Amino acid sequence: MNQLLRALLALLLACAAAQVQAEDFDYYVLSLSLAPAFCEMKAHAYRPPRQCAALTATSFRATPLTLHGLWPDRRDGRHPDCAPGRVRGGFCRLSPVPVSAQLAQALDRYMPGRADCLDRHEWAKHGTCTGLSAQTYFSAAVQLTQRAERALGPAIVANAGQTVPLETLRAELARSDPALRAATQFDCRTPRGYGRRGISMLTEVRIYFERAADGQPGRPLPLRALGRDFNSGCRAGRAYVDTP
User: Fold this and answer.
1) I need a labelling partner for 190 at 20 to 30 A (CA). Which of 17, 59, 99, 202 fits?
2) Whole-number Å distance between alpha carbons of 222 and 225
3) CA distance 10 to 212
4) Does the pLDDT of residue 203 top 60, yes or no?
């Protein structure tokens, strides 16, 4: 009986997720983090993220780009936000995301923030705006992350622990996946204590995609179509790639 009830509950959750009403939006932003930089930025937090305790040189080399989120966005700058307000007590107070066991396993690798219930937050705030089911939304996010890993991951690993010109990374994209080059933005920030060393650290890589007719991410969307530049805060067009 317990198994039957669990199966019925899973079905109801899946149906509810499939009936989400889509917000009006124009394109998607795939936001990918560099885990060492993320953890460096959070080093002085009162409660460091759980995912940072599991970060190793081996895990970084295996997955140099990790999934932060897949965000629906609008050309007029009004970002859709479907979350029901700030959740007291953290992301883990939100309901679990209804995805298959196989997809959950993939998310554990590509979205280590699941250890801090990031998937619940991303689904509540962004995924529910898309009109897609949780299974379809996160499947698309994982597939796009895998594409970015194949195209840019080796160059990130090769330049770990040093400063690299953004043009070097863009040249790698032009070689490995040309359609991504014009759609990729590099975001740099300076963690506490790094300013005196003149370091701007590569914290995120954002890749823009069209919204396809079925509501899912479509073709890469060139930054120039949105009036954006590939360099977001990287001093002199160079970025430091942090290591665990």
Assistant:
1) 59
2) 6
3) 28
4) yes
Sequence length of the chain is 244
Confidence band of 195 (pLDDT split at 50, 70, 90): low
Report residue 216 CA to chain centroid gap. Answer: 16
More confident residue, 193 or 176: 176
- Residue 227, phi-psi category: left (phi > 0), alpha (psi -120 to 50), beta (remainder): left
Tell me which fold the domain 23-240 belongs to. Ribonuclease Rh; Chain A (3.90.730)
Burial of 79 (C-beta count, 10 Å sphere; 0-12/13-18/19+): middle
C-beta of residue 236 within 8 angstroms of C-beta of residue 166? no
Read off the tokens for 155. Answer: 């160059």
pTM: 0.88
Single-letter residue type at 7: A
Alpha-carbon Rg of the chain, whole angstroms?
18
Distance (Å, rounded) from C-alpha 188 to C-alpha 208? 17
Both tokens assigned to 154: 């080796």
Q: Quick one: DSSP state of residue 46? A: S
Angle at which helices 134-158 and 166-176 pack, to 10 degrees?
A: 120
d(CA 209, CA 191): 29
